[in-house]
Amino acid sequence: MVGVFLLAASLLLLEKMLRLFEFVSLEGGPVGVVFKMLLNLIPEYAGLAIPLGLMLGILFAFRKLATSSELDVMRAVGWSYTRLLRVPYLITLVLVGLNFAIVGYLQPKARFAYQEMEFELRSGALGASIRVGEFNAIEDRVALRIEASEDEGRRLLGIFARLADDNGQVLSISAREGRFLANREDRNTIILRLADGTIIHDVEDGPPRVLSFSQHDLPIDLPALEDFRARGADEQEYVLPELLKIGWSPESTADERAGSQANFNFRMVEVVMMILLPLMALALAIPPKRSTSSLGVFVSIVIVVAYHKVNQYGAEVAAIGRVDPFLALWGPFAVLAVMILWMYYQVAFVPGGQALGVLERLFAKLGKRVRKLFGANRRKALRISDAEDEGSLGAV
């Protein structure tokens, strides 16, 4: 179960990691920010990875018992499937509580922290670096370009800077090297200390002035950083008590009530659905007799992922007021519950019953035809090869 959870979470994070690396590199931020942003994404993906891990953990355990005939022995001594599900349900209740805490409280705050970190990266509050070989604009008054960077960006080589003030005067500066220094007197200004360079001062009514220097301190005003918005711009950033307060408050607008109720019901069905997973895992874990078919594993993953996507769509439709939030979220849950209970009844109480009997027979026939087709093609290829060998021997 833990292995499946780690695998599912890793696969979900890997796809996002590539996009984050690209985004951070374009914004010029430090690479460590990527891992901090991924850390805030773990609660978002855990809402899907925990149910998957729980379901597949129980499914693989019962499948191993079924394929080794140990399950038949347990049934023969009087242990029912309901009795065998006691320990899986103890684990399920613990994970339901964990997922409730993640979905209800940790996930909204982690989502807000991720949005705040993305905003700070765009605004430069996380220490965006100077791109090598490109013109970097600072507050539309300073254009800075460097040829190379050493000592982790602390030493800059081949510097060109162009500065303009409010009076229209322009300074063009070139220097062999330089480094950024903090300004203790003014935190909003940094010092670019240049060495071995030239300053060209363009004058409107005369020739430009040229000055050579061995060391020159150039103050650069940092752009003002905006404060990030307060939490709550999106319903997904509210914890459950806040959703209850907004969604059923007469003071809230119709759009706020619809969005809050849709998000609240979405989180609840995602948690309550986990109670049905042991029943579905057991029903899909037991293959037909004298068969090792793994169709149940595939179908179980499809059901969980598809149900998650249906809930997301239902929440989005309910948030804009097209469908009642309760009907949009609990309607699919009722359908899923009836389907799972029927599958469990077929396996647990119908002699010789199979939850996927029709699909198992269909895939068995399909597998035979595929094997027959490949076998015919292989025999045909062997006959052609033999004929070619006989022809070559005759020619010799």
Biggest sheet, open or closed, and with what strands and sense? 6 strands, antiparallel
Can you tell me the residue ranges where pLDDT is under 50 for at least 5 consecutive residues? none
Bin the helical content: 55-70%
Helix/strand order, N-terminal first: HHHHHEEEEEEHHHHHH
Based on DSSP secondary structure assignment, what is the total number of beta strands? 6
Mean pLDDT: 82
Terminal CA distance? 64 Å
Strand order of the largest sheet: 1-2-3-4-5-6
**Backbone CA Rg:** 33 Å
Q: Give the overall shape, derived from the CA principal axes.
A: elongated
Beta content comes to 15-25%
Count of separate DSSP helical elements = 11
Structural class: alpha+beta
Structural notes for this entry:
The chain has 396 residues and is of the alpha+beta class. Helices cover 60% and strands 16% of the residues. It contains eleven helices and six strands. The protein has helices at residues 2-27, 32-67, 70-76, 81-84, 86-123, 240-247, 254-272, 277-285, 295-319, 325-349, 357-395; strands at 136-138, 142-150, 155-164, 170-182, 189-202, 209-221. A six-stranded antiparallel β-sheet has the order 1-2-3-4-5-6, with no helix packed on it. Strand 4 and strand 5 (189-202) form a beta hairpin. Helix 7 runs antiparallel to helix 9 and helix 9 runs antiparallel to helix 10. The two termini are 64 Å apart. The model has no long low-confidence stretch (mean pLDDT 82).
